[in-house]
Each structure stands twice: as structure tokens, then as C-alpha cells.
Amino acid sequence: MPDKDNFNCVIQKDTVRRLTPRECGRLQGMPDGWCDDVPHKDAPEYKMWGNGMALPCVLYVFENVRKILIRRELDELMKGDDQRCDEEKIHK
């Protein structure tokens, strides 16, 4: 019997229920009601969530790619400064 205060799960013996489109959106990191503005059937929304990528995962990956690119750019700048210092020593 489902707990009337807990709507996140349904407990029934030997029964597995399908996730709702709202639950699929939550798993993808989207806020509740994200698709409520446009009237639609559930099937296209299930397809959208299934073909999508979880937003928190995407943000994590891109944030780390950004950090790597910044680190590489700083390394390149530092190498350039080292080369200029070496050239100044040679010309003196």
C-alpha cells in the first residue's frame, strides 16, 4: 500500500511501475514543470528525456574541460615568458 505522505514511490508486491515524465525530467536534472508550458502527450516527452543528457553531468564535464583549457593557456603564456627571458639574456 502506498504511503499517502510519500508520493515518490509506490510499493506494490511484485509490481514495477513506469517512471512518470516528471520523474524522468528530475533524473535529467530539470526542474518540475519544465515541459508544462506546451501541451503534449507523454510519449514524445519520454523520448525527449531518453535521448537527452543529464544537465548536471553535462555541466560537470564542460566545467572540467574549461579548467583544462585555461590551465593549458596559462602554461602556454608561461612558456612564452620563459622564452622572452632567455632571449633577453642572450642579447645582453
Compact description:
By secondary structure, the protein is mainly alpha-helical. It has three helices and no strands.
Would you kindly provide a written description of the structure presented here, covering whatever features stand out?
The chain starts with 20 loop residues before the first helix and ends with a helix. It contains three helices and no strands. 59% of the residues lie in helices and 0% in strands. The longest helix has 37 residues, at 55-91. It has two domains: 1-52, no CATH class; 55-92. The protein has 92 residues and is mainly α.
Nearest-angstrom radius of gyration?
A: 26 Å
Strand content: under 5%
Q: Domains counted in the coordinates: how many?
A: 2
Count of extended strands: 0
Q: Helical content, roughly?
A: 55-70%
Which structural class do you get from the secondary structure elements?
Answer: mainly alpha
Largest sheet: none
Count the DSSP helices: 3
What shape does the CA trace take? elongated
Task: Report mean pLDDT, rounded to a whole number.
Answer: 78
Helix-strand pattern: HHH
Spatial separation of the terminal alpha carbons: 87 Å
List low-confidence stretches. Answer: 1-8
Distinctive features:
single chain, 92 residues, mainly alpha, 3 helices, elongated, disordered N terminus
Strands, helices and their partners?
Blueprint lengths: L20 H7 L14 H10 L3 H37 L1
